[in-house]
Amino acid sequence: MIGFFGYLLVIAAGNSAFQAELHADDECGEGAKTCSLEALQLRANRASCYFHGIFLAGKVKVVSHFPDIKVKLVDSFPDLEVKKVSHFPDRCGEWQIVENFPDFTVQFVSSFPDVKIRYVTSFPGVYQR
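== 7(1) septoil knot domain-containing protein ==
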């Protein structure tokens, strides 16, 4: 079965070792043909955590005009679950609200958003429907 980005997922049922067979030029390891399922999921989640070339994690400034992304705060079926952090917003959905030197800017809108978000206290990232 072909999975994300042309990777062939191989599930070894005998010893519960999940591996993914990758293309020879893959970056999962130095010349490695396999990597763990967790590493593959992390890479797939990171690849899907972009909006028009902007990685949806990092330092965010809330603005009222000319944002990079228009967001709407929702209670159900968000595109992205966001966790506010105070340090190291490195993972998908982790936002540190700042006033200076943002990675991208957002504007909260009530209609026609680019991305719908929901604040969470754990497990931020792309919402899995």
